[in-house]
Write a structure and sequence with these properties.
Blueprint (H helix, E strand, L loop, with lengths): L3 E7 L3 H13 L5 E4 L36 H22 L10 E3 L2 E6 L1 H14 L9 E3 L2 H7 L1 H4 L9 E6 L3 E3 L1 H14 L3 E3 L2 E8 L5 E7 L5 E11 L5 H8 L8 E12 L2 H6 L3 E3 L13 E7 L2 E11 L12 H4 L3 H13 L1 H11 L3 H11 L9 E4 L3 E6 L2 E3 L2 E5 L5 E6 L7 H12 L4 H11 L11 H15 L4
Parallel strand pairs: 1-2, 1-11, 2-8, 4-13, 11-20
Antiparallel strand pairs: 3-7, 4-6, 5-6, 9-10, 10-11, 12-15, 12-16, 12-17, 13-14, 14-15, 17-18, 19-20
Helix pairs in contact: 1-6, 1-13, 2-13, 2-15
Length: about 475
Amino acid sequence: MSETVDVVLIGGGIMSATLGTLLKELQPDWKIVALERDGEVAQESSNAWNNAGTGHAALCELNYMPDPEDPSKAVGINEQFQQSRQLWTSLVEKGILDAPSTFINATPHMTFVTGKSDVAYLRGRYETLKTQPLFAGIEYSEDSRVIHQWAPLLMEKRRKTDEPFAATRVPAGTDVDFGALTRQLFDHLKDSGAEVLLNHEVKKLSKQKDGTWLVRFRNRIGKAPLQLNARFVFVGAGGWAIKLLQGSGIPEIKGYGVFPIGGQFLKTSNPALVAKHQAKVYSQAAVGAPPMSVPHLDARMVEGEGSLMFGPFATFSPKFLKKGSLFDIVSQVRLHNIGSMLKVGATNLDLVKYLVTELLKSPAKKLDSLRVFMPTAKAEDWELIQAGQRAQVMKGGKLQFGTEVVSAADGSIAGLLGASPGASTAATIMLNVLASCFPDRIAGWEPQLKALIPTYGETLNDDAAKAKSTTARTAEALGVLA
């Protein structure tokens, strides 16, 4: 007989860590087991060097607001990030998380564009957002002197041309080390009695007659096959999730496929450069580029060290994880998803062209891309680093750029597919998992959830006073700007 536990978390990233933490607060008596195939948690997408660390709140990311007159998606993303901030605030106050500066730091978010049409778009976006309570404090300028004050590296030795440029700035942006945050949450789970098993790879999920899931896994060091039963399973294994969900046999996964896209960044730790650029600056994506490939020059703070990153430059690998298998992209193919996947390939020729162009870029060409942002960039200051793998969702013949929860009808298993905005909205995504998978308990949990996230079940943007007081509270607790 296998041991039966209440919850199995598959994957040692920010999603599993967030869900596990919420469940420990809601049901401290439940037995939770986390299984991570690597020797440490937070080694894939949650690792600080595998993502840009942007606290995604749609303050600077233009892909969340393609229509400058429609702020709905941008507001929605910001609402979700505010829930994450509230959760982190509560966890800091409870002593579950360490000092906020170990995982979050104030970093203004900016957008910088060139060309008449993009300047007109950015101006229209600013005019729309400045009236939204969650975007209070957004600034706009076409003045090179003002933009130089905001981000000197953008303006130094920029040639004077007839091409206009413009920028927006929100001082209340943040840089988040999701690797550090994930590790701290898992440390708390272990201290609270949860088992966190590293080097343990899940091989098979099988539904049992009693409604539990038989989770078969192996110790990658000892090679020993192991198993346990779980009343609830969450698959937060990044790109690996689709393979496990397909193997589980749940009908809800039918039709889904994923397309892996990797990335590289140019990175510098030159103190003189770091001191001159204390912001995250985003621009427009190239034609055909996925949203995760929007170019940006970011200030980072990882383990107390400041640095700058520029990119990403798209790469391609058939692997769903950095440490995945070369057969991943093929092994997902099923009769129920092959038609959709082929349609995605046929209708996204701009993406194919973009990926080919990116793959052919030499180091010199990548530096030229950086010089569009930073005219004074020198090759000797920058190194190329490999970022994480992202598995973009394919369904219904479309390539979807976002995150999607797939759960069984009985709520006994759920998994997460997709990427951006991902980690920044982990609190909201996991609240949705709780609501869909535990419908008989969610009402009883509401008082505890509101203690953790005071605006749980509410929105902020339609109440200016509440938006201001909530952001002020979390800003003070987390040591960032409101």
